[in-house]
Amino acid sequence: MSSSKVWFVTGVSSGFGRTLTELALKSGDKVAATLRKPEAISDLASKYSADVLLPIQLDVTKHEQVKAAFDRALTHFGRIDIVFNNAGVDVMSEVETMVEADARAMFEVNFWGAAFVTQEALHVFREENKPQGGRLLQVSSGGGVVGLPGNGFYAATKHALEGLSESVAKEIDPAWNIKITLLEFGVFRTQIIGDNAKILPHHPAYDNESLAGYQFHKHVMSPNVRGDAEKAMSQVLRLSRLEDPPMRLMLGNDVSPIIRDKLRVFGGELDKYESWSADLDVDE
Question: For the chain, which has fewer Cβ within 10 Å, the N-terminal or C-terminal residue?
């Protein structure tokens, strides 16, 4: 690979996708910037030439559009070094009160859209890049590891992406030089918790300030969220240059403690009840 990398970024209209695109361009990289409405980055398109920035209209829930977007990026840049699989939506609600249409829409984007991008990225890295290889950066969340009160269906989409990504990492041949990292973010100041946030009404039974879901909604929509998206994306740019990247990278001061707590509880339960499985095989 040359020192200048070619990125394929989904969800560039705002948030992490927009911020990462700007930082990559400033660092001298090239970006195929995909989003539903390319006019949302017309300011960037007027600032950077087509040699380094290629806006592409893309709805990640349409597999044929995903494939066409990769094909266009390949034709334009010749290769794709890094895929930032970022497009996502969030509708917050307790599990009981979630509207089915909203839940399905989240899975369409956060899981199926990410899955389609994953499939095409693997194909490009192995079959099209010369030499073979590439980096697949999967935008997950602390909610992909730990259940989120008041945001259970979003957490479910990210748990699904985690399982898919772990499986892919075990399937691929190391000779293909494909590196996969799950980015497990905490809460950052982006539009997903700002202008783009959607919180469904509480059922009266959950309208209790002492409940975890109520507190979660109150926190993520408050000025107390201190995560800086630009600083986080600077670390993602740094990650993209590592020769031996981790399978998981946790980013955010609020995410590591909840994952450590889960590991502690998980390990304790495993130790306490592992013996229950000692005699569960068929007797010969």
Answer: C
Would you kindly state where each structural domain of the chain is located, as residue ranges? 6-275
Q: Model-level pTM?
A: 0.94
Name the DSSP class of 282: P
Amino acid (1-letter code) at residue 148: L
Which residues, listed in sequence order, are joined to residue 8 by a DSSP beta bridge?
Answer: 32, 83
170-180: pLDDT as tens digits: 999 999 999 99
Tell me if 114 sits within 8 A of 136, measured CB to CB. no
CA atoms within a 13 Å half-sphere pointing along the CA-CB vector of 232: 26
Residue identified by tokens 């957490």 is 155
Is the Cβ–Cβ distance between 102 and 200 less than 8 Å?
A: yes
In which band, very low, low, confident or very high, does the pLDDT at 195 lie, cut at 50, 70 and 90?
A: low
Residue partners of 247: CB distance under 8 A and separation at least 6: 166, 169, 180, 181, 182
Stretch among 165-169, 187-191, 226-230, 263-267 having the lowest mean pLDDT: 187-191
Query: CB atoms < 10 A from the CB of 26, how many?
Result: 10
| Radius of gyration, CA atoms only, the chain | 20
Active site residues: 140, 154, 158
Please tell me the CATH superfamily of domain 6-275, with its number: NAD(P)-binding Rossmann-like Domain (3.40.50.720)
Contact 77, 6 (CB under 8 A): yes
